[in-house]
Amino acid sequence: MKTQILSQNDTLAAAKILNAGGVVAIPTETVYGLAANAFNNAAVRKIFGAKGRPSDNPLIVHISQVDEIYALVQDFTEDAQKLAEAFWPGPLTIILKKSDAISKIVSGGLDSVALRLPEHPVARKIINETGLPLVAPSANTSGRPSPTSAAHVIADLGGKIDAVVDAGRCKFGVESTVISLCEAVPKILRPGAVTLEHIRCVLGNAEIDNAVLNPIEDGVRPISPGTKYKHYAPKADVTILKGTRGAYIDYINNNCSGKNIVALCYDEDIPYLKVSAISYGKEADSTLQAEKLFDSLRAIDKIEGVDAVYARCPSKCGIGLAVYNRLLRAAGFHIIEI
Ligand code: AMP
Ligand code: MG
If you take atom 5 of ligand 1, which residue's CA is the nearest one? Predict the structure, then answer.
């Protein structure tokens, strides 16, 4: 299959492909999403096939107007309305009990559905022009870092999808915050640009799911099926080094002889390192780190014969928790205190 590259002005062409049951990667303010008609099971199956996504990992359904939610859920609860009012359009995904309109293929067999109303004007235009809710998981091969540019999408899915709409780089660079309102206390299953503090300001009560910062224990079924799968990892093993800049630089410079080490570090570390270094932003700027992390993880794979990657440990404040969570997963939760 030839993958068409569409411009951000080609929203009608993208909508036409989607209405005909095709799959199109679309820009959003978080990462690029691989979209298909949420009501067309054959189209939804194409997404699982192109990504190599396990069938029990549910998809987020994207809408362009709040009213569209009523047909998709059993109850647009008071908490959900408050969150939608505060954060939509934007990078927040809300999980509610699903209506019969959502197939078990979309929900990965669960009785809930994840919903988002994105802010990106091109995404909203495309959804609006199809007149349909669109499922849109991140437009990467399962397990790879999420795509923050059309080039990332093409690198993973070129030849496997109908089209990609290129609108440049994504604003946030990490996927949406996912919150479940199907638990006793609202639970953040994936941190993102909308933080726990933001949500507590609106709901009063919310907590971070254990799986955000800890590996899933054997025999435990996670609330979010996605958390049990390997994610974001480059080919070489990643280790997070937790400590000061001085300790990080010493650790790497003293352990690098005879090995092809890559430092995944901050701009400020580079002048002191004796190994190949790829920066994922500035130490005090979590927003920039979020924007750059996936691109930096992809850049590591372009270096030949890497033995190991040592990453600086990001701050957990604000969107920093999302950066930390993605890096933890890329590192398979492997951290050394230095
Ligand atoms: P992605 O589609 O790549 O943005 O990832 C979406 C994430 O949301 C995955 O980790 C899914 O497991 C999770 N998710 C989607 N729908 C649900 C749901 N109904 N219940 C729990 N987690 C969900
Ligand atoms: Mg994903």
Answer: 137
Cis peptide before 27 (omega within 30 of 0): no
Q: Whose CA is nearest to atom 21 of ligand 1?
A: 224
Q: Report how far ligand 2's centroid is from the alpha carbon of 338 (Å).
A: 31
Q: What is the pLDDT of residue 136?
A: 98
Looking at residue 220, its pLDDT comes to 86
> Hey, which of 26, 31, 60, 92 would you mutate to test ligand 1's pocket, going by the most ligand atoms within 8 Å of its Cβ?
60
Which residue puts its alpha carbon closest to atom 10 of ligand 1? 226
Query: Taking the CA atoms of the chain, what radius of gyration do you get in angstroms?
Result: 20
**Pocket, ligand 1, Cβ cutoff 6 A:** 57-60, 95, 107, 110, 112-114, 137-138, 175, 178, 189, 223-226
Kindly report the three-state secondary structure assignment for every residue of 209-250: CHHHCCCCCCCCCCCCHHHHCCCCCCCCEEEEEECCHHHHHH
Residues, the chain, total? 338
pTM above 0.90, yes or no: yes
For residue range 96-141, list pLDDT tens digits in order: 999 999 999 999 999 999 999 999 999 999 999 999 999 999 999 9
What is the average per-residue pLDDT within 226-234?
83
CA dihedral of 188, 191, 196, 201, whole degrees rounded to 10: -90
pLDDT score at 230: 73
* Residue whose pair of structure tokens reads 């230095």 in the numeric block: 338
